[in-house]
Amino acid sequence: MQFYLGDESILIGQTVANTIATQKVDSAEFTILTKIWVKPEGRRQLLPVFHKLRIVNWINIAEECDLTWTMFLLHGAPNLKELHILVRNHQCEMVTGKRRELPVVCKEKDKGLEWEPSASDFKHHNLAELGIYGRFHAADKLVRFARDVVEAAVNLENIRLYKSPVCVRCKHMLKEWTFEETSWLSYEFSKEIPSHVRIHFPSL
Q: Domain of life here (predicted)?
């Protein structure tokens, strides 16, 4: 099921609660249409909404944003199996309808997407796969995010890194991973990610 988030300040659980509660939803895709700030919600509020979700996709997160805020979903979705993050680093996509031109989600000056760090003792036991789509110019930020996920998701098996311009207009520019790129990213991730978690570089 697809959800489009456009309010400047939002309680995600509260926003989608009625829709998810009235339908059998085990996967959700959240597309961010404007710069937003996600208000903190506790596990008590999130669990009744997200507890059945198995797959979640976050679409259109600006590259300059800290991804830590997405960790709140692990608290509210104990049965989550797959988490996918699509990171944008430019604004040239033009589409019709709800997926209009997608602006930058947050700006460095006010860090539009924020989240308090998760409790260090929190553990998620079902997440098996993390997928990140982007150009990986800010590899250090992505590595830190993956490390945080691994620390919480004790049974995570795979991290899949997709090289993607994440833009329909620039799709023709998509190129395969080079040996130099995969070697560099493998090295960067290996410094923070335990060896039992496998890093993959699949093609789209």
A: Eukaryota
Is there a contact between 152 and 124 (Cβ–Cβ < 8 Å)? yes
Please tell me whether residue 23 adopts helix, strand or coil conformation.
Answer: coil
d(CA 86, CA 175): 17
Which run of H or E residues covers position 15?
helix 12-22
**pLDDT per residue of the chain (204 residues) written in tens, 0 to 9:** 888 887 666 778 877 887 887 777 889 998 887 766 777 777 888 888 888 999 999 988 877 777 888 888 898 899 999 999 988 765 554 343 444 444 333 434 344 444 444 556 889 999 999 999 887 776 788 888 899 999 999 999 999 998 875 566 666 566 678 899 899 889 988 888 998 999 999 987
Domains of the chain, residue spans: 2-200
CA-closest candidate to residue 124, choices 92, 156, 90, 95? 156
pTM of the model: 0.80
Angle (CA) 136-138-144 rounded to 5° is: 100
